Amino acid sequence: MRTVVLTMKASVIEMFLVLLVTGVHSNKETSKKIKRPKFTVPQINCDVKAGKIINPEFIVKCPAGCQDPKFHVYGTDVYASYSSVCGAAVHSGVLDNSGGKILVRKVAGLSGYKGSYSNGVQSLSLPRWRESFIVLESKPKKGVTYPSALTYSSSKSPAAQAGETTKAYQRPPIPATTAQPVTLMQLLAVTVAVATPTILPRPSPSAASTTSIRRPEPVGHRSQEMDLWSTTTYTSSQNRPGADPGIQRQDPSGAAFEKPVRADVSLGEMDSWKPGSVLLDEGRVPKEELSTQSLEPVSLGDPNCKIDLSFLIDGSTSIGKRRFRIQKQLLAGVAQALDIGPAGPLMGVVQYGDNPATHFNLKTHMNSRDLKIAIEKITQRGGLSNVGRAISFVTKNFFSKANGNRSSAPNVVVVMVDGWPTDKVEEASRLARESGINIFFITIEGAAENEKQYVVEPNFANKAVCRTNGFYSFHVQSWFGLHKTLQPLVKRVCDTDRLACSKTCLNSADIGFVIDGSSSVGTGNFRTVLQFVTNLTKEFEISDTDTRVGAVQYTYEQRLEFGFDQYSSKPDILNAIKRVGYWSGGTSTGAAINFALEQLFKKSKPNKRKLMILITDGRSYDDVRIPAMAAHLKGVITYAIGVAWAAQEELEVIATHPARDHSFFVDEFDNLYQYVPRIIQNICTEFNSQPRN
Q: Signal peptide location in the record (predicted)?
């Protein structure tokens, strides 16, 4: 009997060993057959927004050219999902403008996104958005499978244009298990499990809210869930203007989430966020087009008031804290009334005392809300009231491209003075005007009769402002009446047609070159004359709204080489000058002046200064007196440059009075270049000497 038992045990053990070996061998065979599918990186266009993509984490390839400002980006380092994915990648520095692969990870929405300028992209500020994302280098995590085809919230997606396979959003299926060999112990375990009742856990209320499908609401209806949306991540205190951005607030899972003041965000802080709770909180995939107005991006600014504005505020000790606070209230009111934005007005603040200091420049705050908060935080510096030094500082430092200055926007400075300055402003203001800056002055509680002896520079406001016609000056009798200047000030700074100092000697002229192409000049000297014309042209700001250039060549006859409206950029003008061919013939200067008046200056714009620059190498065969007088009567300022055999007395007749400032004689063509600086200086001196009333 014992022998039989031992034999049965041996058989059972042998069977177990056979099954075990068979299972191991089968596992190896199965693993050999399973091949990891090849991962292809989906490609998207520059205009694809992160909010359109359902996937919580994905790798994509961006094309070149996403630095273009038409692809809007909101935020810094952590971006609102309303942003262009590829534009945000360029802004963050992960990509350059040539494109490439990136890793995108969705994170929780924030109550505020800060705009900034980085890597050639200007990102905008945004009060809040329901979902965010961060951009990383395309280094996939081990064990993480990234989608080869992205899931979009709409079947019509921009990615389809890039040749990418897209699919409509579906509930993710339950992952299937791979078939494994069944062992005897597994069979025994299954047998035991059949006799044991299964108890399922009760779903939590939060889980039910994210998985249940709600009936869609009408587009215009705001449901209770939507009303509570803004508090799913933060408490309602986030809506207070003075809310501390560093306060920790609770998300629905109970984990503390700290709003980043700057861009340094730890990825670990975002781990508790689940995309489904945001994307499916209304039982359907949300669309930005159906969002309520409060979720839309902030205004891009009023395009009818596109100015670059600097406020020079008085921080001197004598002003006191109360009046300094009233001054800040006016600034906040202006910021609100102007509708600050990248397509409209931009505003910075400089405070002066002993020395000026910039609180923030033009690109620091890109909307009225952020600007008002920043103004509230300004503290008084104290010291004297050195306004002249402050104006010089702004002229040299503030209006630069690095500080956000835009070449297409007029530069405006509003100076606020309590009483009177403690230094002189006349010379500093003159340099500012010549730089194209429109200066406004607000003088509060000016010097009383017995105080005028202490004023360093009498009539300082009229010496400082752009024009003395009253448009640029405000005299306020009391600080308590300062608020009354708000609306008139905003109206005036936005009236760009009346900002006279935006015009400078280099950006406000129609310049017509009248070039002698007679036989005595010769081919080589003619090229030297064209180089002289090129050197003069390079000094001006060329565009269809700035200085324009035209040219006429003459012998016995006349030829229009190109008119004022033919080219609108400096490179195009310079290339056109190079292409002018030498004509050869006689010298009829009088007829050439008449031709230029008719073919060039008759088409000059009314608000442009008309400058004729005539170059000749000899005496004219016809009379020049009557044509020259006609040019003067039509307001054409004429400069006459004679070379070699030109008649000095004839040059003085052609030139505008006084002839010593408008006529020049050069003995050789090769010396023409020496007169370029002097001619430019005379043009600007004459322009800046115009009366300011």
A: 1-26
